[in-house]
Amino acid sequence: MNDENKSCCPPPEAEPTATRSAAPMWIIVVTLMVLFFGGLYLDSHSGWFDAKVYAPYNSAEMLESFQPLSGAAQAAAQGKKVYEAVCGICHGVDGAGKPGQAPPLAGSEWVTAKGMSRLTHIPLQGLNGPIKVAGKDWTLNMAAMGAALPDSDLAAVLTYIRNSWGNKAGEVSADDVKKVRDAIGGHPQPMSGDDLTKMPE
Amino acid sequence: MKTGLTVFLATAVAFGASWLGLVYGPIAQLGGQQQTVVLQSGDTWPQQRTGDATLGLQVYRAYGCAACHTQQARQSGVADEITLTSLGSDKAADLKDYVKTLLVLPSLLEASNTIVANLEAWNGQVPLTLYSGQDSAVVATLADKLKAGGLKTDARVVASGPDLARGWGVRQSVAADYLYDVPVQLGSLRAGPDLSIIGVRSPDVNWQLQHLYAPRSLVKSSTMPAFRFLFTVRKAGAQPAPDALVLPPEFAPAAGLEVVPTAEARQLAAYLVSLKATAPLYEAPFTPVTAAK
What we know:
Structural class of chain B: alpha+beta
Strand content of chain B: 5-15%
Number of strands of chain B: 7
Oligomer: heterodimer
Shape of chain B: flat
CATH superfamily of the largest domain in chain A: Cytochrome c-like domain
Radius of gyration of chain B: 26 Å
Structural class of chain A: mainly alpha
Low-confidence stretches of chain A: none
CATH class of the domain at 44-73 and 190-273 in chain B: Mainly Alpha
Strand order of the largest sheet of chain B: 4-3-5
Mean pLDDT of chain A: 81
Distance between the termini of chain B: 77 Å
Helix content of chain B: 25-40%
CATH architecture of the largest domain in chain A: Orthogonal Bundle
Shape of chain A: rod-shaped
Number of helices of chain A: 8
CATH superfamily of the domain at 44-73 and 190-273 in chain B: Cytochrome c-like domain
């Protein structure tokens, strides 16, 4: 049988052997191009994997550029917040003051004065002794409630009380507050109404 | 087995890589979420839920609400818009010519042309969107220019997209929105509407309860199943119970009976009205309409 088989069939071909051939150039070129454009896309759309950057924003810069413009609204909100936490307890959330505790801020000529210097001295130094507010005499003590506040917060509060409850006066900037604070120096003493009147407005 | 070490190392690398990508990566990117500050306000976002609303999340989960409702509004675009808010004492026709004279600036030529085109097509009604664009520097310059000219305009950041156009949100949902949701009920299928601001769209707890009991009594075309097992139908006393549902006749039970919500129904309703992702955040800025007025 074996002999028969041998005679019937051609001899088997040689075993195939592995050879190496170079990858076609076009595959290399296409791969590099895909990597290159993928890199470009990642660069312009990933937002560098910043947790704050969601589509449709492409980058932190783009997100930043879309933050609402008006800083004034933010300062007003901050002023209201600080006022209600620090000042409103005595002066009232409506600025109307409380008899025997604190004079009103609404309609007070000290608050709506043209300059902000005298007004800024009050929270930074405190008050002691008689002072005339909106036609009434008050003799009460006020601690230097604003001395511990940052300039920006105090400026926001002063701007807030100068522009709330019917008051209409100019804004107070953090720089203004800083100037007054520097002028007072390290050991603020409470002032009276007369002391204030002697100062420039 | 000679290759044991190789197989072990290869397996460790393969599993380790997926762990890095699927577990460690997201945690590193978003795991440090904290309450954030709402833009132009001293408030923080999000607020911790209280009482019934906290329990309601578990009811929402237990009954598979997330199978048909998502809680993620998507956004496809954002633009800076300048809107003319008021005519003041001017006439529309005068204003049209005046705005044209204001905008003779070569650097703003394209924007000016858009505004002029918008003014030409204007019917004299306010508010009028004068300009909508992506370049905030151009918008800021334009806004200053118009403001200096004495016009009552308003510059706003407006988020847009199909979800927002449907009223399902005012901005896209972001990771911070889900800070207190355990587990997060994102959902992936919308057989029903998105619920990320349902607490703003339907803030009335009684509406929510009636909608759970008989959805079609409030929304005719609703395909939502009625969750009647969350309510008790019982014999009414001489006075109806204070929390009994007030139903239209075709949905009301027989005379002498009343429908009162169970604790679960109340919790679910409290949870639904607590879904209010409308705060403008740093990562999803927009100018709220109420603040602009």
